[in-house]
Design brief:
Elements (H helix, E strand, L loop, with lengths): L2 H14 L2 H8 L3 H15 L4 E3 L4 E3 L1 H27 L4 E8 L1 H18 L2 E8 L13 E5 L7 E15 L1 H7 L12 E5 L8 E4 L5 E4 L2 E6 L2 H9 L4 E5 L4 H6 L3 E2 L5 E2 L1 E9 L6 H14 L3
Length: 296
């Protein structure tokens, strides 16, 4: 056996928390995993793990060796994946988390094309609008919309999206068309649950002056599709990203208001944990999304 195989065995034991779990992961017998661990410790002349009937614990030497083994194994994997990528044969699993509407509207077709380009990749997608900790390790890539505040992460911008104030013609006929942001205070407004009402909605006029207005209304939701359908039904005015309004604006179900003012622009990022050795398959996915999303 090579030293890399012994390293892989050791790292699997630490990551799994037990020799039994590592044996399942490596598809080996418990005796084989235990024997490899003993051989490695004998070769190194140092104890890496302390063992008792309940748990395994890294020694100081074991902690040092584990960290460097992880780096070496990740680098080997990265080199292998890079060579495979050069031949168009990336493989393995990728996990991506993305907001519900953005994932459906902007990314679903792109992810299908990515899989067509790399048929040996298995992609697990999770769509929801709850906050996801990209540093948790649960996902390889997390798509975030808005402000980023975690310095532990690497963020690559996919695109910018404009927020547009929209309403259904039936609502405007019944309640009038607001001419300034201040008028919104007298209207029924539909807003995001995860946006603070105290912050209100902010617009800028053509001279660049900011106009902030506090809004209220009959519905708040953590999903833009829900707010959009409520706006189409005439329940009120919504402030939504342009990427989810194209069909409704084209059909006339919704119309943009306050055309002399602009709301804020929000950025969309692909976020992943800051690691020295990024797997080539993850890099390939991020670069693919950036390239495809930014196409004219």
């Amino acid at each position: 056996m090579s030293r890399l195989e012994y390293m892989e065995n050791f790292v699997a034991v630490v990551d799994s928390g037990s020799i039994t779990a590592a044996a399942d992961k490596l598809e080996l017998t418990i005796a084989a995993v235990s024997k490899r661990l003993k051989i490695l410790e004998t070769d190194l002349g140092v104890r890496l793990l302390t063992r008792n009937t309940r748990q395994l614990a890294l020694t100081e030497a074991g902690q040092y060796y584990y960290q460097h083994c992880r780096e070496i194994l990740e680098e080997v994997s990265r080199v292998d994946q890079h060579l495979l990528a050069m031949q168009g044969t990336l493989s393995g699993s990728l996990r991506i988390n993305m907001p519900m509407t953005y994932g459906k509207v902007r990314l679903s077709k792109l992810l299908i094309r990515f899989l067509q380009q790399y048929p040996d990749i298995h992609l697990a997608t999770h769509l929801d609008d709850a906050y996801t900790d990209a540093a948790s390790g649960d996902y390889d890539v997390v798509i975030r919309i808005g402000v980023l505040d975690d310095s532990r992460l690497i963020a690559r911008k996919l695109e910018n999206a404009r927020l547009l104030p929209v309403a259904a013609p039936v609502y405007l006929e019944r309640n009038g068309i607001p001419q300034t942001p201040a008028n919104l205070g007298k209207h029924q407004c539909l807003h995001y649950t995860n946006a603070s009402l105290r912050e209100g909605w902010t617009f800028h006029d053509q001279e660049g002056r900011a106009h902030n207005v506090q809004v209220s209304g009959p519905l708040c939701a953590n999903n833009g599709e829900v707010l959009k359908q409520a706006a189409v039904a005439g329940l009120g005015i919504a402030l939504l990203p342009d990427f989810e309004l194209a069909n409704e604006l084209k059909s006339g179900e919704l119309v943009q208001i306050l055309n002399d003012y602009s709301a804020q622009t929000i950025s969309v990022y692909a976020v992943y944990p800051s690691r020295q050795f990024l797997p080539e398959k993850t890099r390939a996915l991020v670069e693919f999304l950036i390239q495809e999303v930014q196409k004219p």
